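Title: Comparing notes on inverse folding

I've been comparing how different people in this forum approach sequence design from structure. To keep things fair, I'm posting one structure and asking everyone to reply with a full sequence. Here's the target:
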């Protein structure tokens, strides 16, 4: 379902070194599969596709039905990082590009909050809420993250004032820890329907738990097909082999980094619907590998748009990067370019051709140009951008991330560095208990 092609790296590497890195990746595969490596208490994601309980899917469907009966047309999904990006990337990838502007709507619009602290963003969100029939999904594994907590205070108050406390409890769903955290306490107190984020699944690996599935289903998308694709990938990637796509990807990116100084990986897409898949991937690889003074910096471009901006740097700038192209073999819609009598734009040579054909030629041409410019190329391909193939792609990147981080020699499942900004923010906001840090930071400003 997911293929990895590394031919575009051939002219940059020595085959014997590649073989050595495949062996390292196979050792890392064993560490992941034996579940004995660092962070092994966070491996619950590995079997999520085959093990999501039917009762969870039924509960999610029940909530979507209830909200439909109530006429809900706006769902505010509150969360940040791993409690945001998985749902956002799937909804963007599988929705009509112009779903918001089309007059026919099959499902509520899902918008996101709690992923920033912008006052303007929240004020404008409430302008929208004032015009719509609103429900809310609040997601925080820890239940204590500041950004979603601030947004939820505001959205909760709005919903309670508009619909009353009893109806608010039917319109708010919480996704959080089974036992601890402020959100758990509040949900129990207010009687919200609650889903649990399993203890053994970290935020950035949680898209196939209710963290991702609830907002995705609320947007009217097929979560069963998403899980089916992920399950196929789960089975295919569990086979230890030098041809396993996760092993190939992990081996090549570690080789390019460690032996050839390629410290930036650019995930390249040729479909605007994949923009947030790249954002999700950046968090997955950035938080999993960027620690202990090492790691490949994950970046992304959206082509062909970015060929007219970042294309210059990639072609001729500092030679620090390799590219991984997300290749989608078949478009799901068809637009054929027509002939034009005047041919002023001189594009009649394209008459009768599909736009996607031009897109593929742009992709191939760019890949070859970038190879000529000194940028090694990998391609990760799926057949088409539907729920099943996307599920497989997400699982592929998760599994490959585990293999790759172990190949690199870091714990893929922690993120100790994320705490540093939080401490400073709390001190500057004068949170009780932070008095000394407040003084120390103020002295530096
Ligand atoms: O991947 C992670 O663990 C993080 O990105 C978290 O998902 C993010 O910090 C949000 O945390 P929480 O769900 O506890 O609010």
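Reply #1:
Here's my take.
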């Amino acid at each position: 379902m997911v293929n990895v092609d590394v031919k575009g790296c051939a002219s940059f590497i020595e085959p014997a070194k590649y073989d050595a890195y495949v062996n390292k990746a196979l050792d890392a595969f064993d560490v992941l599969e034996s579940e004995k490596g660092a962070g092994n208490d966070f491996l619950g994601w590995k079997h999520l596709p085959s093990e999501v309980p039917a009762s969870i899917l039924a509960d999610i469907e029940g909530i979507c039905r209830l909200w439909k009966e109530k006429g809900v047309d706006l769902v505010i999904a509150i969360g940040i990082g791993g409690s945001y990006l998985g749902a956002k990337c799937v909804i963007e990838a599988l929705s009509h590009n112009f779903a918001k502007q089309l007059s026919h709507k099959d499902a509520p619009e899902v918008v996101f909050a709690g992923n920033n602290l912008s006052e303007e963003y929240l004020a404008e969100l409430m302008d929208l809420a004032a015009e719509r029939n609103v429900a809310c999904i609040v997601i925080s594994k820890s239940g204590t993250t500041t950004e979603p907590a601030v947004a939820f205070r505001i959205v909760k108050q709005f919903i309670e004032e508009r619909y009353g406390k009893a109806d608010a409890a039917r319109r708010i769903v919480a996704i959080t820890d089974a036992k601890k955290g402020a959100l758990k306490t509040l949900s129990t107190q207010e009687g919200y329907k609650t889903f649990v984020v399993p203890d053994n699944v970290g935020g950035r690996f949680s898209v196939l738990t209710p963290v991702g599935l609830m907002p995705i289903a609320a947007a009217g998308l097929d979560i069963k097909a998403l899980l089916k694709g992920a399950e196929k990938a789960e089975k295919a990637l569990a086979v230890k082999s030098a041809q396993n796509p996760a092993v190939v990807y992990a081996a090549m990116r570690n080789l390019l980094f460690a032996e050839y100084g390629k410290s930036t990986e650019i995930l390249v897409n040729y479909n605007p619907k994949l923009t947030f898949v790249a954002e999700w991937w950046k968090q997955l690889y950035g938080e999993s590998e960027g620690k202990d003074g090492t790691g490949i910096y994950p970046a992304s471009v959206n082509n062909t748009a970015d060929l007219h901006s970042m294309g210059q740097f990639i072609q001729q700038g500092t030679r620090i990067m390799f590219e991984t192209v997300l290749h989608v073999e078949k478009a799901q819609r068809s637009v054929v370019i027509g002939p034009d009598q005047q041919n002023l734009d001189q594009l009649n040579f394209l008459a009768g051709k599909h736009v996607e054909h031009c897109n593929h030629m742009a992709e191939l041409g760019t890949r070859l140009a970038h190879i000529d410019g000194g940028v090694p190329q990998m391609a990760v391909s799926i057949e088409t951008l539907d729920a099943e193939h996307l599920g497989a792609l997400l699982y592929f990147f998760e599994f490959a991330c585990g293999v790759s981080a172990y190949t690199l020699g870091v714990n893929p499942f922690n993120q100790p560095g994320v705490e540093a900004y939080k401490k400073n923010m709390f001190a500057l906001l004068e949170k009780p208990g932070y008095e000394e840090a407040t003084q120390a930071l103020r002295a530096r400003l």
